[in-house]
Amino acid sequence: MISSFLSSLFGCSQENKSNTITPPITKPVENITASIDQKTRRAKSEKICESNGVPIYKNPNSLFVSSEKEVKLRNEDEVVDRTIALLYLGLKSEGLEQVHLDKMEEEYGISSKLSPVEKEYAYSSNPTDQQRTNANWRYESLHVLLWALGYIDELVYPNQMCNVADDVKIIYELGRTNLEKIKIEK
């Protein structure tokens, strides 16, 4: 079972159960030509990793994310929406009472801010432990979004978890009105 999963993940097995062809998820590394910005970003990241003792995958033709030309950055409205969505997911993962989650849904329209996978978790009455764990780790992304919005001065090297209480406090103190006002003012 694991080998068939890995085969399908890496494009080695192109057939699924319905006998239709599924394109590979990734491009073979020998077919990757990185742009200058990708190479520069990779070199900078590798330097940071090396200085912190993080092992590096050495294949020069792999592990590139999209070039800057291909990336569509989210606007401030979308960043605020993701911030609210990730807060909701994190709070649910910690067992916040459903009445409070329902209030957030009503106030912020959470459903429209969640991906399909997030919705599956958010509206499950019996989520799995893995779903709960995955949602809890989304606090780290929430922390980065608060930095992007200007509420956290500096992102430090990620060798420890963010301070969730501080991040939730920022959003709580802003309140709905001020958080939504970001969309208008910025």
From TrEMBL:
InterPro entries: DUF4272 (IPR025368). It holds the Pfam family DUF4272. Keywords: Plasmid. This is DUF4272 domain-containing protein. It comes from Persicobacter psychrovividus.
